[in-house]
Amino acid sequence: MNITTIHNVYFIGIGGIGMSALARYFVANGKQVEGYDKTPTEITTSLQNLGVSIHFEDDFNNIPTSFLNTEHTLVVYTPAMPKEHSELNYFKSNGFQVLKRSAVLGEITRQTTCLAVAGTHGKTTTTSILGHLLNMCDVPVTAFLGGISENYNSNLIINGTEVTVVEADEFDRSFLTLSPDLACITSMDADHLDIYGDASELVKTFKDFSTRVKPNGKLFVKNGLPLKGITYGVEDDSDYSAKNVRIKEGSYVFDVQTPSGIFKDFEFNLPGRHNLSNAIIALAMAVEHGCPHNQLAKGLASYKGVKRRFSYQIKTEDFVYIDDYAHHPEEINAVHQAVREMYPGKKVLVVFQPHLYSRTRDFVDGFAESLSKFDELLLLDIYPARELPIEGVTSEWLLQKIENSNKKLIQKSELIEEIKKSDAPVVLTIGAGNIGEEVKFIKEAFSFAN
Questions:
Q1: pTM
Q2: Are 229 and 116 in contact (CB under 8 A)?
Q3: Which domain holds residue 23?
Q4: 153 with 295, same domain?
């Protein structure tokens, strides 16, 4: 693929978080961009505001004639698209260059210094921290993010094209298209078993990814993972480690142990040891890239986070409302640790929407254990995303396994009224489905009340 000869880029599934970042990239590089998605969202609206034409009906007659030139049009699709999608099949059957998002990302990064972040948890936050740090250190970087950065209100950071920062996504083995100069692996917990079958195959694929690092490149791994590389961690004996960690006015203050010495007094505003770990690996990769200590410290202190990653929606003395993307038992455990550390002794209500029937089935006991740790639980129906129902796999089944006397299965239409019935001063909404669309309504209801 020669990007310079392409005039038009057509996206099938343009509203996806990774797809929309690529669309923004091509718009910024002067290409004509159009696309399809199933439903309008805030992301599709933001792309339309950039001049991108988007339609929401799967019909190849909606494709503009200017995009029907096979020589000058690239078609990008997400593997989440169903195989019977008529537009996708039209392009495939008529000689167009049709590539998965991951292949396009691999091609874009090939001619750059590529910094890739892999792992079943922490990719988006780590990538956004790293992209922000490099940008604040005046590195000519383009960073493709898997979430909307609070600092940039975008999932794309552009400050040049010599360096790229990308999420190395294990879904559908997409990250095997990358050949990074620097790469990290944050975690290898079982996930996407609908793709991999079992956890051992997932671990094998992460090991395959580790061999994709260029011969003179560097691999960073979370301390304890069964891989060789530069290690990182929190208050341990890693090559890069957070030391002397303390909380000051709701923020972490810590020192960074590096192979060349200790950097003092970094400040980081995101709660949770998992986020502190994400900050350490982002700092480690930035240091190895050559960024100076003083600028890194300023950059980290100015980092505001990613939307739907422990995002404070309301924060008063009497009431706190936090929204998070957590959709795996380990991610829920991390959110629980963070909220208990920040609000010790306070009653916490969690609202959870399970994501995927297969993930609920595969990790039902883990979900039950992690959700049982909260004081109150409101459970929504499973969000199916790309899946059809699985017999016996329901939110009611999950609810029965949760050891919490104050638990209830509800519909989304009941959500605000049910939250109002609680006297919990800390409320969390978590999940990777469309629960995120309810956040603004909950915020409005409780901002007014408070």
A1: 0.83
A2: no
A3: 3-99
A4: yes
